Amino acid sequence: MIGRSALPLISLMVVLSLSIISAEAQLSATFYDATCPNASTIIRNSIRRAISAERRMAASLIRLHFHDCFVQGCDASILLDETSTIQSEKTARPNDNSVRGYEVIEAAKREVERACPGLVSCADVLTLAARDASVAVGGPSWSVKLGRRDSTTANRDVANTDLPSPFSDLQVLIDAFDKKGLNARDMVALSGAHTLGQSQCFLFRGRIYSNGTDIDAGFASTRRRGCPQTGGDSNLAALDLVTPNSFDNNYFRNLVQRKGLLQSDQVLFTGSTAAIVSQYSGNPRTFAADFATAMIKMSEIEPTLGQNGIIRRVCSAIN
């Protein structure tokens, strides 16, 4: 039988134990300092090599991180291959034959595994890779908190419903980001990642042949040369015609000039977000700072922490 005098001590121990568990299950910028102190450097060097070999990969890695975080949070679920028990997100409509960079993350993971087996999650590798990709092409850097664990499941259905469409109108976009805890300013800043990368013809064909008042006629004519009305669905065009491989604010300058490639780009220069676009078009430092802030917020959407999930040895498969 436990005496009354022992109860406060037991209660204190329970509280302390819960506090320790809670403290451990938090993202931290120093998470691997004791267990794998070179993790960030190993990943950064691997990502730099990949982008040096193909500069377009910077955009792909930032997009890969975005498409991961919008489905089940930032848990590397997008990296899982199809199995008898897993419906891969790779084959969801927004990702299939579109999202790329999987092999770059696997390569970085292999290097980390050699140095620190079983310690660094694929989710953290992907989060660091997005930051390092930004820096590699002249974009901002930011402090990345670590400690995510990898999911054991994927969710193709959520990938099909929650990832924003390039055909969306403004309110649909605002709602999609709000669902993930990101406000309209975060959304506009994150959309600025389209200062990098390319898009397939079938995603912007309707816009460039619309003869609409929201598209510059000369810009539309230029884009039609590489995107016929029929055929050529996978033909690529730069999202930013001016500096497609450098991180800058030209994307927003394009929107002000009605030269956004996707409908979901140009609608940002309407309604409640038009003022933000104007601000970013005239102030690259403000855009860079807001982009970094929004990337941090996005990277912390519903992380898998503590004893949940696993640390995958290979990012495309469950251990």
TrEMBL record:
Positions contributing to Ca(2+) 2 binding: T195, D240, T243, D248
Signal peptide range: 1-25
Transmembrane segments: none
Disulfide bonds: C36-C116, C69-C74, C122-C315, C201-C227
GO cellular component, one term: extracellular region
Biological process according to GO: hydrogen peroxide catabolic process; response to oxidative stress
Coiled coil regions in record: none
Record-annotated site: Transition state stabilizer: R63
Cofactor note: Binds 2 calcium ions per subunit. Binds 1 heme b (iron(II)-protoporphyrin IX) group per subunit.
PANTHER family referenced in this protein's UniProt entry, alphabetically: PEROXIDASE 5, PEROXIDASE 72-RELATED
Family as reported in the entry's similarity comment: Belongs to the peroxidase family. Classical plant (class III) peroxidase subfamily.
Name used for this protein in its record: Peroxidase
Organism, as annotated: Salvia divinorum
